[in-house]
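User: For a reading group we're discussing how well predicted structures match intuition. Take Phospho-N-acetylmuramoyl-pentapeptide-transferase. Before you show the prediction, I'll give you the sequence so everyone sees exactly what went in.
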Amino acid sequence: MRQILFAAAIALAVSILLTPLLIKMFAKQGFGQEIRVDGPASHQAKRGTPTMGGVAIVIGMWAGYLGSHLIGIGYRAEGPSASGLLVLGLATFLGVVGFLDDFIKIRKQRNLGLTAAGKYVGQLGAAVVFGVLALQFKGRNGLTPASRHLSYVRDVTTVSMGVIIFLLFVCFVVVAWSNAVNLTDGLDGLAAGSMGLVLGGYVVITFWQYYHACSTKPEAGCYNVRDPLDLALVCAAAAAACIGFLWWNAAPAKIFMGDTGSLALGGLLAGLSITSRTELLMIVIGALFVAEAASVVLQVVVFRTTRNRLFKMAPFHHHFELSKWAETTVIIRFWLLAGIASAVGLGLFYSEYLSAVG
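Assistant: Thanks. Here is the predicted 3D structure of Phospho-N-acetylmuramoyl-pentapeptide-transferase, as C-alpha cells, for the group to look at:
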C-alpha cells in the first residue's frame, strides 16, 4: 500500500511541476495547437495553445512507477515486473506515435498529422510487440502477463484463442482504446479528468486482485493475475500524472495533451485490460470513451446510409456544445458519467467476487 501512495505522490509532483515548464518551452518554440475549421466557433480562440503536454503525463507516470520501486528497496519490496513494464512500454510507444503526429501538425500548421495508414502502422506495430511479449515471462506462479483466454473479471476458460487470433485481438483492443481516448480529447480537461476516474477505479481492482491472489491466498474467488500489485502502481502513477496535468489543462486550458497523451493513455487502458484479465469489464469502466468512439461510428454509418446526421457533430461532446451547452457544463457532466461508469464497473467486479466466494 505504501508503494501505491509513493507512486501517486511522485507522479503528481512531477506532472504538476513539469507541465508549466513545457508550457513555456513549447510556447517559445511555437508548438501551438491547430483547430478544426469545421468545429465549434468558440474553439478558434484556442488556436496556438501549446500542445504535446502528454509528455508530462508519460514522464510523470514513469517517474512515479520507478520512484516507488526505488523507495521500495528500503523495505525489500519486489522490483519492477514484466506486466508493469510491458503496459508502460506500450503506452510510451503509442505516446511516441502521438508525438510524431502532433509534431507534423505543428510543422505543417494544419490539423492533420500522420496519415491514417502511418498512425495505424504505429499502433499495430506496438500491439504486436506487446502481444508477443505478454505471452512470455512466466512468473513464479506459472502465469504470463497476458492470457489467451477472453476475460471479464477473470479468464473465461470456455473462450480460448490461438496465438494468431490472440495477436489480432490485441491489435483490435489497442487500436480501439487508443482511438477512443484520442476522440474524447476534444474539450479542456475532458480526457485527463475522465482518465483519472477510470484509473482510480483500476487502482482498487488491481489492489484487490493482489490481496486475493491465488498465489498467496488460494481460496474461492482468488485471482490468477501475474503482477497485480505492480499494475496497481502503474494505475496510481498514471492517475496522479493525469490529475497533475489537469491542473494546467482544466478550462481554460494552458496546454493540451495532444495525441502524445491521448494515444499513450489509450494504450495504457488496453494494456491494463489485458494484463489484469478484465478486457470486457474495461468496456463498462471506460464506457465514456466507448460512447465517444461509438458516436463517431454511428455518425458515419447514419450519414452514409441516409445522408442525414445523427449528431450535430461527432464525437458527441461537440453535439452538446452546438446545442448551446457551455463547454464547462459538458466537461463536468461527462466527468460525472465517467465516474458513474467507474462505480458501476467496480460494483460488477465486487459482485462477481461475492458470487465466486458464495
